[in-house]
Design a protein that fits this description.
Pfam families: FtsX, MacB_PCD
Number of domains: 2
Number of helices: 13
Number of strands: 10
Strand order of the largest sheet: 2-3-8-5-7-6
Strand content: 15-25%
Protein name: FtsX-like permease family protein
Radius of gyration: 32 Å
GO molecular function: transmembrane transporter activity
Membrane topology: Multi-pass membrane protein
Structural class: alpha+beta
Transmembrane segments: 26-46, 291-313, 334-361, 373-397
Distance between the termini: 33 Å
């Protein structure tokens, strides 16, 4: 109880000192405010961007592997010359792979053509993405429908002129009316709409189905070369959830090497891409941005910390005789130390809270813009923790020097 009472008195002394020197207090905490604002703003922006991008990456599926010509990456020293002569995934690769895989719950062959125009009577939508896929497309991707259904086995095998469309396509062509049962024109051919994907909203990595249409692969064979590199052919494999991703990847790798007749020890002529590759690239990029935030904000906090240490030395000098009186009346050294240490911590904490408040105001402003920044609880805790740490470091030496003063010499000053 005595210790708690002493701590309470130390807080009262510190708060009285801060109230009596309002202008000095305000100027002292500005450096901390700017530093905390910079660090937490950068971290909040990065975390918000990371969350949106990660949500896009998660759509790929944690047990999904993409067999493609090009490995994901493309940053820095990317050896494109190693991959340019590789063959594209073929229908033969797809069929043999589908027959050989035991760990796959779905294997699909997909192609894509972007920036195409889709028409319905007098209405048209530009910039649509055309996708053609084999029957297992609904097993390798999570598809939700707001209207209609997926292809039947017979429709997929016969290459029926049917199509699934995204929510934005449906809105642009039919203006809210029922889309199922109507015919649209795609690449000069009429296709019957049998399903409309549920609206997903904007996606930072283009993974949304809102502006896509999907037709059976066997129908697409009649209007385009489905094995051409113009359409980025991809074999998508989704493994069973109870099987480890490494085992799924290893099985695909062995099967593809056998299909392509690659000799032992020879380099593979295909790439196995997965969501973890994208996640690792994002983590690497965001680590550099976070480091930049620490460097920029750290300089401001460093200056603010020196400013607070200087102010605390001034405060000790001004109250030297009071310290002498307190010690002559029996105040212990730790009581004097805590008194000034708490004053320094409160100063930094006020600056940190003001910086967090400014970040919160910025997050409110971004809600009306195109990119919303979220102030996460972890960043709030980080801001408070950094403020307390800087207050402790900046105030310790002035507080320690105050606690070591001789009471007689202090009173005489």
């Amino acid at each position: 109880m005595i210790i708690l009472r002493l701590i309470g008195e130390s807080f009262r002394f510190a708060s009285d000192a801060l109230r009596q020197n309002k202008l000095r207090t305000l100027l002292s905490l500005l450096g901390i405010t700017i530093g905390i604002f910079t660090i937490i703003f950068v971290f909040s922006a990065v975390d918000s961007l990371r969350a949106k991008l990660q949500a896009s990456v998660d759509k790929l599926g944690s047990k999904t592997v993409f067999v493609q010509k090009w490995p994901w990456g493309g940053f820095g020293d990317y050896p494109w010359w190693k991959y340019v002569n590789r063959p594209e995934p073929s229908l033969r690769d797809y069929q043999l792979l589908k027959d050989r895989l035991e760990y796959a719950q779905g294997v699909s062959y997909e192609i894509s053509a972007n920036e195409r125009t889709v028409k319905y009577r007098a209405n048209s939508v530009e910039g649509a993405g055309i996708r053609a896929a084999s029957q297992d497309f609904n097993k390798t991707w999570n598809l939700d429908f707001q209207e209609g259904r997926y292809f039947t086995e017979n429709e997929g095998r016969a290459g029926s002129p049917v199509v699934l469309i995204g929510a934005d396509i449906a809105e642009g062509l039919f203006n809210g009316a029922t889309a199922v049962g109507k015919s649209i024109v795609v690449m000069g051919r009429k296709l019957n709409v049998i399903g409309v994907f549920k609206k997903e909203g904007e996606d930072m990595m283009g993974m949304s189905q809102d502006k896509n249409i999907v037709m059976p692969l066997n129908f697409a064979k009649g209007i385009m070369d489905v094995e051409s590199d113009r359409y980025d052919p991809t074999i998508t494999v989704r493994g069973y959830e109870h099987i480890a991703l490494d085992e799924i990847e290893s099985e695909i790798q062995g099967a593809m090497r056998s299909i392509r007749r690659i000799k032992p020890g020879a380099e593979e002529d295909f790439a196995l891409n997965k969501s973890t590759i994208a996640s690792q690239q994002l983590d690497s990029m965001f680590e550099k941005v976070n480091l930049a935030g620490w460097v920029i904000g750290g300089f401001s906090i460093l200056v603010g910390g020196f400013g607070i240490a200087n102010i605390m030395f001034v405060s000790v000098k001004e109250r030297t005789n009071i310290i002498g009186i307190q010690k002559s009346l029996g105040a212990k050294n730790y009581f004097i130390l805590l008194q000034f240490l708490f004053e320094s911590i409160v100063l930094c904490l006020l600056g940190g809270l003001l910086g967090l408040f400014l970040v919160y105001l910025v997050t409110l402003l971004t809600k009306s813009g195109g990119f919303e920044i979220i102030l996460f609880l972890s960043n709030i805790i980080l801001g408070v923790g950094v403020s307390v740490a800087i207050g402790t470091i900046s105030g310790f030496w002035p507080a320690y020097s105050a606690s070591r003063l001789d009471p007689v010499e202090a009173i005489r000053s």
